Amino acid sequence: MEHQNFRKNIESKILELPLMQYEWISPSELLFKEEVRQICKQECPMYGKSWSCPPAVGTVAECSAKCQEYQGIFLFTTIAEVTDIANLEETLQTRFDHEEITRTLGKIFQEEGAEVKLLSSESCAICDSCAYCEGENCRHPEYMIPCIESQGILVTELAEKYDIPFLSSMTTVQWFGLVLYR
Q1: How many CB atoms lie within 10 A of CB 74?
Q2: By the 8 A CB rule, do 32 and 54 touch?
Q3: Is the dihedral of CA 16, 103, 128, 89 positive or negative?
Q4: Total-model pTM
Q5: Is residue 92 within 8 Å of residue 180, measured between CB atoms?
Q6: What separation in angstroms does the CA of 38 have from each of 22, 29, 176?
Q7: What one-character DSSP code corresponds to residue 20?
Q8: H helices of the chain, where?
Q9: Contact 144/138 with Cβ under 8 angstroms?
Q10: Which run of H or E residues covers position 117?
Q11: Which of 71, 106, 123, 162 is close enough to 46 for a disulfide, judged by CB 3.0 to 4.6 Å?
């Protein structure tokens, strides 16, 4: 695929999507850190309970190697308004719209002939209980979108590099997503 035309075609198709900001970046710009994975392990209640989270996604080195196999990355953000970002239940409910936008972007890239890997802002929440906990294969691998941090990727580094506000207000949720493509 010719890269400039590819980007131009994608950009013409995403005009209607409620994206706050986006950047075209290289896989080499991703910073993978074991410390990110340690935060998952110590602070996230989904660690070891989902196919979209560690340790099921592989080691940080394995995740890095898989991501480096892609030609490029489309980094994007969406925003959602809430009454108070500290209200975790309300905040997490807004992510489903972000996940739908992430899937839509994946389809747009696929329509342009790309193979994609989607990463988003939270652990998968498609099923009430993940098959991982039952020792079974994922029931919906075609819909699952692993968390960016589950890969060991330091999102704050990307936000800073591209001047993307990580937290803009106590009533605005900023969701991040990545479309890796080749």
Answers
A1: 24
A2: no
A3: negative
A4: 0.90
A5: no
A6: 28, 21, 20
A7: S
A8: 3-13, 34-43, 60-68, 88-93, 95-111, 155-161
A9: yes
A10: strand 116-119
A11: 123
Spatial distance between the Cα atoms of 79 and 174, rounded to a whole number of angstroms: 5
Tokens of 72: 């490029």
Q: Alpha helix locations (H) across 95-181?
A: 95-111, 155-161
| Model confidence pLDDT, tens digit, residues 119-150 | 998 778 788 889 998 999 999 988 889 999 99
Degrees to nearest 5, angle at CA 103 with 39 and 68:
55
Question: Does residue 91 contact residue 173 with C-beta atoms inside 8 Å?
Answer: yes
Residue 89 CA: distances (Å) to CA of 83, 85, 92, 124, 157: 11, 9, 5, 15, 26
Amino acid at 85: I
Q: What's the confidence (pLDDT) of residue 94?
A: 83
